[in-house]
């Protein structure tokens, strides 16, 4: 019996039979157009913007409040201007006029203690030229006569009402006393001898109320400053006023 030849199948490793493949390019590299490995760059990263919550709009609220306030103030100014314009067209206000017509000195002498006693009677003419406006002269007025910064005498105007187109003549008594008046009296005498006149300043501060038709407005104050040039300050003599000028000023 012939020997049977046994044939055993041989399994050949396919992977061992194939030649090993060598990578053409190293890992993590790219190939350029010329075939050379390109330089490696890290992968690009996108930055995602972070959304923050918006704070409350406080600034816009403040701006709105400021705009409203300015608008109201502007509107109020416009309304006041319109009302003032209407009142001006209706009443046609004019400033009152004042003048010092006469100055009489009843006392002006130096006593033994070097004090100067003075007493003046000042005649003032007040004219209201308005047709529809009256003037209430309230209490608390003050009138004074000065010479180069020294007050000689003072007094007050009476309380009265001056109607439309009215002229009122007031005789106001003023009294005063100045201590250590030797130098003052010498200065007055030199001024009279050198220039023939003595400059005096008369100042008036008077609170008044204006009446527009039947409407009585709030109390305001005005001041009057008059420059007087007199020939002398001798007592019981006729004093001549060589020159006089007055300025009127209203103070709210």
From TrEMBL:
Residues 123-226 form the Late embryogenesis abundant protein LEA-2 subgroup domain. The chain crosses the membrane at residues 68-91. Its main location: membrane. It is a single-pass membrane protein. Keywords: Membrane, Transmembrane, Transmembrane helix. It is found in: Membrane. Signal peptide: none annotated. Residues 1-49 are annotated as: Disordered. Residues 30-39 have a biased composition (Basic and acidic residues). This is Late embryogenesis abundant protein LEA-2 subgroup domain-containing protein.
């Amino acid at each position: 019996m012939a020997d049977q030849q046994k044939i055993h199948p041989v399994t050949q490793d396919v992977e061992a039979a194939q030649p090993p493949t060598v990578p053409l390019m190293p890992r993590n590299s790219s190939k350029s157009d010329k075939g050379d490995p390109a330089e490696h760059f890290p992968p690009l990263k996108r930055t995602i913007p972070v959304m923050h919550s918006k704070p409350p709009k406080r600034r816009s609220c403040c701006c709105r409040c400021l705009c409203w306030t300015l608008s109201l103030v502007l509107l109020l100014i416009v309304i006041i201007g319109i009302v003032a314009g209407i009142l001006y067209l209706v009443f046609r206000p004019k400033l009152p006029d004042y003048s010092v017509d006469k100055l009489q000195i009843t006392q002006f002498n130096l006593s033994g203690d070097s004090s100067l006693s003075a007493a003046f009677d000042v005649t003032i003419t007040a004219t209201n030229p308005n047709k529809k406006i009256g003037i209430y002269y309230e209490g608390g007025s003050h009138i004074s006569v000065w010479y180069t910064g020294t007050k000689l005498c003072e007094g007050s105007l009476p309380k009265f009402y001056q109607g439309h187109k009215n002229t009122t003549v007031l005789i106001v008594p003023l009294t005063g006393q100045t201590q250590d008046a030797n130098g003052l009296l010498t200065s007055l005498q030199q001024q009279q001898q050198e220039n023939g006149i003595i400059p005096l300043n008369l100042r008036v501060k008077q609170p008044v109320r204006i009446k527009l038709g039947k409407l009585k407005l709030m109390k305001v104050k005005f001041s009057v400053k008059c420059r007087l040039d007199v020939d002398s300050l001798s007592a019981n003599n006729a004093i001549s006023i060589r020159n006089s000028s007055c300025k009127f000023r209203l103070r709210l």
